[in-house]
Amino acid sequence: MKITDVQPDSLAANYGIQIGDDLLKINDHSVRDIIDYQFLTSDEILNVEVSQNGSLNRLTIEKEPDISLGLSFEEIKPRCCGNNCIFCFVDQNPPGLRKSLYIKDEDFRFSFLYGNYVTLTHITRRDLQRIAKQRLSPLYVSIHATDTEVRKRLLGLRKDDRLFEKLDFLTRHGIQLHVQIVLCPGYNDGSVLEHTIDTLETYFPQVASVAIVPVGLTKYRTNLPELHPVSESQAVELIRWGHERASDYFKKWNQHWLFLADEFYLISKKSIPAAEFYDDFSQIENGVGMTRMLLDNFEIQQITFPERLPAARNITLVTGVCAYPFMKNVITARLNNVLNLNVNLFPVINRFYEGQVTVTGLLTGQDIFHTLQNQELGDVVYLPGNCVNFDGLFLDDWTIDKLSKMLNTPVQLLSDNFSYIFENL
């Protein structure tokens, strides 16, 4: 592992380890990645092998178990997916985007570290043994269907990938799994979905939660299998069925266990469940309970809102088409009750992807610009915090600064803290 940073006054610095060195082994075990590093450095005595300018340096470091060596490394290169899922969003990206947006990762390490979903299709016996030995739990797993033929069709597999052997091994060794199902009408709904849930519940409590999310479809599906979005009537029926199942699980296990993505409630125009329904919000990064958490946080924050501003101010909020109704009826309505504050709310149509993409997390800089140009934007434009990545880039590589200059108006990110508006007016 190439060392990219050494913290000043850290143990590593005190033992002469430098940026650019290669960490080779700890206690005679090869260090393949950050997980190995964290696992192996929990010991109190470390026999470390480091390559420095081509020379092998052996060090013995004594430390407390919870004290870090103070090293940083190059990022892990993800293992790529060998499946050919008929609903894969990467296959629906337009040409010309940055390379990272075309990477299909299928890496159990990323599942453990970052909550990425993996199918387990190509995981090896050695990988499974490593997961068990290093207690890499929880993992996030895409199942989609437990019927073998349906699963093969959905994932583009030629043969049975022996899913149940892998689930049996992981759950038997105490690895907790959070499962997702991408719902594709006509493929894995109806009786197929019933069978999938019936099968997965036999793995409770090691399968700790199951989330159903709707298939996302863009206009870039040339030469891809025909798929249909979840309709309003299908969402209504799914919610009825899902809540009945979740209620039964709560009676048995004191957990609802089965959850539906927020999009189903927005598609069906049904109310978002109360926070208690989402248990510990274990699938929130999958768009499950995110709206409820936003609304509940807003309910708390609005207590701190002033009754009036000392001078008239105008601001603009941006949202996706899917979230527009509740943003308009709940959040914007309350903000506009503050005297001298006028809030304009603009839903942005996703022309970049088109299709059935309506969520805020997939908004692009250019679509936001086309929606807001020639509008009275006021003093500042606030964007949803999840429409840019950690580098501040939209999916189309626009930046906040570029959008601000194009609109000739300050643009800022606004996550779930609406009190921030009043702190900065």
Strand content: 15-25%
Name the helicity range: 25-40%
**What's the rounded overall pLDDT mean?**
95
The first-level CATH class of the largest domain is given as Alpha Beta
Strand order across the largest sheet: 7-8-9-10-11
Number of DSSP helical runs = 14
Biggest sheet features: 5 strands, parallel
Helix/strand structural class: alpha/beta
* CATH architecture classification of the largest domain: Alpha-Beta Horseshoe
Gross geometry: globular
Distance between the termini: 47 Å
Q: Care to count the β-strands? A: 15
Q: What is the count of distinct domains?
A: 3
Query: Which spans have pLDDT < 50 for at least 5 consecutive residues?
Result: none
N-to-C series of helices and strands: EHEEHEEEHEHEHHEHEHEHHEHEHEHEH
CATH topology (level 3) name of the largest domain: pyruvate-formate lyase- activating enzyme
Q: Specify the oligomeric state.
A: single chain
What does this structure look like?
This protein is α/β, with parallel strands linked by helices and 425 residues long. It folds into three domains: 3-73, Pdz3 Domain (Roll), CATH 2.30.42.10; 90-288, pyruvate-formate lyase- activating enzyme, CATH 3.80.30; 297-423, Rossmann fold, CATH 3.40.50. The protein contains 14 helices and 15 strands. The strands form four sheets. The protein has a five-stranded parallel sheet. Strands 3-2-4-5 form a four-stranded antiparallel sheet, with helices on one face. Helix 8 packs across helix 9 (262-268). The longest helix is centred in the middle third of the chain and has 22 residues, at 232-253. The two termini are 47 Å apart.
